[in-house]
Write a structure and sequence with these properties.
The structure is a single chain. The protein is an alpha/beta fold. The chain has a domain of 131 residues. It is 45% helix and 15% strand. The protein has a 5-stranded antiparallel β-sheet with strand order 1-2-7-8-9. Strand 8 and strand 9 form a beta hairpin. Helix 3 packs across helix 4 and helix 7 crosses helix 8.
Amino acid sequence: MKQGITYKIKASGSALIAVFWIMAILALAVFSAVRVVYLDADIAAAQVNGFDALQVAERGVSVAVNPVIQRDDPLLIWADEEKEISYRARITSEAARFNINVLLLRKDKQLLTDILTDWGLMLEDAQMLVDNLTDWVDTGDLTELNGAEVDWYEDQGRPNHPFNRPFYSLDEMRLVKNMQMLEEVNPDWRNWFTVWSNGKLDLNEAAPELIAAAAEVSIDDAQDLVEYIVGPDRERDTEDDQRIQNLAEGLEILGVSDFQRPVIEPRLTVQDTTTRIISIGQAGTVRRKITLIIRSRTGQPPILSRKEEIIP
């Protein structure tokens, strides 16, 4: 009799444990389902907000391309707090960067070599990379002193390289022999170059480091020029900016000698109409960025490049 009672107690205990396990599994399943629902909701909200952010960024682009809009125009910044949407647009010159195609086709090897060695490449490696880049854009099959033409690329299993034409984009430069060396010493090298400007570096727009390289002056001299241009408030695109009106004025401020000018002048300008417009739209916490490059902001200018990005 006692054995029967003991068996029933053990069976009841086992059943209770099984019930607890089942409840735990169901609770875990419910929790997982809720998490999936919340995740789906977050994804759906992010998609909706992403679309809204892109649309409002487009609105910023539409404002910025209008030729009557000045760089310090308050219309370049807009927000609707009730709907939690906003954009911030900026107008800059594409000539704030070096046009890599122009430098290579003009065979301004000294400038490119100086830039690469300043970034940390050994002189021999810098000269080799400049020659490789030159061989990529020139129209002939003759190899530069340290360069690479079709034979080298074919040996690497890469037929139809080099293209023997100017680069269509900066990403295309990564196809050139030894470009990984440049990536290693300066991962941000793209910030120095473009393929879209008219060819010369704009003194009114460029950063001091680029001006110093192009004009072969010290970084302090280049910084002095930039501080003169941006005015007392030290900010670009404000009312107190003092833009350089002609190249001679800029070279005088930089202290470029008459002896140097035949080499320096072809690299520089004070006016380039090629325009880069950057518009960042935000909806809630989601942001989207549009970068548009156009030949000018007059008439119906051709769009040279357009890029959409997700900003984390």
